[in-house]
Amino acid sequence: MNTPTERIKQSISPLINNIVNHKLYSSIEDIEDMRVFMQYHVYAVWDFMSLLKILQRNLTCVDVPWIPVGDANTRYLINEIVTGEESDVDMNGVRKSHFEMYQEAMDQCGADTSGIKTFINSLKQNGNLEAAFAAAKTPAAAREFVNFTFEIINSNKAYLQSAIFTYGREDLIPGMFVSILNDIERNFPDSVSQFKYYIERHIEVDGDHHSNLAIEMTNNLCGSDDEKWVAAEQVIKTALEKRIGLWDGVFNQITSTKKLQY
């Protein structure tokens, strides 16, 4: 009999296949295309951190006085990934969050960072997502992606948060994307080296170790509750569909821009 993990992997396999083989990757042909991609993708880089921090809040103790909370392996996983995401080292050995590294990669690439900066500044002022989207003129596909992430964050259900973290976020950057970066780097060596480092670093730190611990975390949170597993599978599928929608949005932007050039 298949375990819940095996059933989920089988169930989401077609969606994973669609993401790994998405037409977006072959549409990224030059530095302009990469800039468009980054202006969308940066929102996923940002909201991943929000998803991770809600898991840290729900599965560890961040209050005073401190008391032990939950499973020690889960605490280790969350705290380790938070450390890596908030204070990793960039290609010069300087401590930065992955989000800050991504913004610097955008600057190097020549991608427009005004949107994401406006978005963050608006959040600092009022904490309202819709107001921040409006101020930043966030692309619709990125807005839909982030809104779903926050729907799960605001559900206050750690098992659903863990489910999309484990199966919807950690392993979705295909190796072929590194090959695309290699091709672009040959023509623009001073434009994408930081982005290439970010991608390679992301793949390195999210290897088997983190994946196995994340699966264990979701298994612990869902336990033997069939209703939780059914709900988890559904939100995972929706998260993957939102990723496809995000990629579709980038692809449509890239291809429509090219049409206007001819």
Concise description?
The protein has 262 residues and is an all-alpha fold. The protein contains 13 helices and two strands, in the order ααααββααααααααα.
How would you describe this structure to a colleague?
The protein is an all-alpha fold. 76% of the residues lie in helices and 2% in strands. The protein has a two-stranded antiparallel ribbon with strand order 1-2. A hairpin with a 5-residue loop joins strand 1 (88-89) and strand 2. Helix 3 (31-59) packs antiparallel against helix 4 (72-87). The longest helix is centred in the last third of the chain and has 35 residues, at 226-260. The protein is globular, with a radius of gyration of 19 Å. It starts with a helix and ends with a helix. The mean pLDDT is 90.
Count all strands and give the number: 2
Q: In angstroms, what is the radius of gyration?
A: 19 Å
Stretches where pLDDT is under 50 for at least 5 consecutive residues are none
The main sheet orders its strands as 1-2
Estimated structural class: mainly alpha
Keywords:
two-stranded antiparallel ribbon, single chain, globular, 76% helix, 262 residues, 2 strands, mainly alpha
Give the secondary structure arrangement, pairings included.
Layout: H1 4-20, H2 24-27, H3 31-59, H4 72-87, E1 88-89, E2 95-96, H5 98-109, H6 114-126, H7 129-136, H8 140-153, H9 158-168, H10 176-187, H11 193-205, H12 208-222, H13 226-260
Antiparallel strand pairs: 1-2
Helix pairs in contact: 1-13, 3-4, 3-5, 3-8, 3-9, 3-13, 4-12, 5-11, 6-7, 8-13, 9-12, 9-13, 10-11
